[in-house]
Write a structure and sequence with these properties.
Blueprint lengths: L1 H8 L5 H24 L4 E6 L7 E7 L7 E8 L21 H25 L11 H7 L3 E10 L2 H15 L4 E8 L10 E2 L8 H18 L5
Parallel strand pairs: 3-4, 4-5
Antiparallel strand pairs: 1-2, 2-3, 5-6
Helix pairs in contact: 2-6, 3-5
Length: 226
């Protein structure tokens, strides 16, 4: 990510690279780590029905066919100033600038998928967990298991605080939220990045381990289906 941002600052990245390059890399890296850890093959799936949206596109799912039991959403936020952003501040775009909107989008998709799973389960006569008065408890107990991972380039302590706050919102509807935040170099956009401290429960290594164990359990429970 450090090398990628250096190329962005130097004007060596296209608009498509700036918008999606770092996020695609982060997404692929997470999928590779989890595949090797859990001994599964993860898939991108399109046209996945939700309760309200007839077709959803999902970048990381398990298994490849039939009912989806695991889904992962990855977002990389925060960009340095580059030749195409002449109006941006010297330190670039804060990591928290777009994160609130993205967290809401992921939240809607998660609820949509889980609600459709509950509808289909009820339609074939299987027991379903009632929502009751606690939506968060219902979301965490209903398939698919959902994980959100965020890589955030932050420009100051307040930006980091806002990123952590938005990640906390995602915890209300997700099985787990992993956050890797890193500080931009002081006084400019280039130079070595340094990791930022995040709440222990959001540390990316811990949440990756949880996601791996979740995948192992799903694989074992569906051994006859796969």
């Amino acid at each position: 990510m450090e090398e990628f941002d250096a190329r962005v600052s130097a004007g060596m990245a296209s608009e498509g690279d700036r918008q999606n390059g770092k996020g695609d890399f982060f997404n692929d890296l997470l999928a590779l780590l989890l595949e090797n850890c859990a001994g599964v093959e993860l898939w991108s799936r399109g046209k996945v029905p939700g309760l309200m949206v007839p077709e959803n596109s999902l970048d990381v799912t398990f298994p490849a066919r039939g009912r989806i039991d695991f889904v992962l959403e990855a977002k990389a936020v925060g960009t340095p100033k580059h030749p195409g952003s002449t109006a941006a501040k010297p330190f670039g775009r804060p990591g928290s600038a777009d994160l609130g909107k993205r967290i809401k989008e992921i939240g809607f998709k998660t609820i949509d998928l889980k609600a459709e799973h509950a509808r289909r389960t009820a339609a074939i006569g299987e027991d379903t967990t009632p929502i009751g008065g606690d939506l968060t408890a219902w979301l965490r107990s209903t398939l698919p298991k959902s994980y959100v991972f965020i890589a955030a380039r932050v420009v100051n302590d307040n930006d980091l605080k806002q990123v952590v706050k938005h990640a906390g919102y995602a915890e209300q509807y997700s099985t787990g939220v992993g956050l890797f935040a890193f500080h931009a170099a002081r006084g400019g956009t280039l130079g070595k990045y340094r990791p930022a401290e995040v709440p222990p429960g959001m540390e990316i290594s811990r949440v990756l381990h949880r996601a791996c164990e979740e995948l192992k359990a799903i694989k074992a429970s569906r051994a006859n289906d796969l």
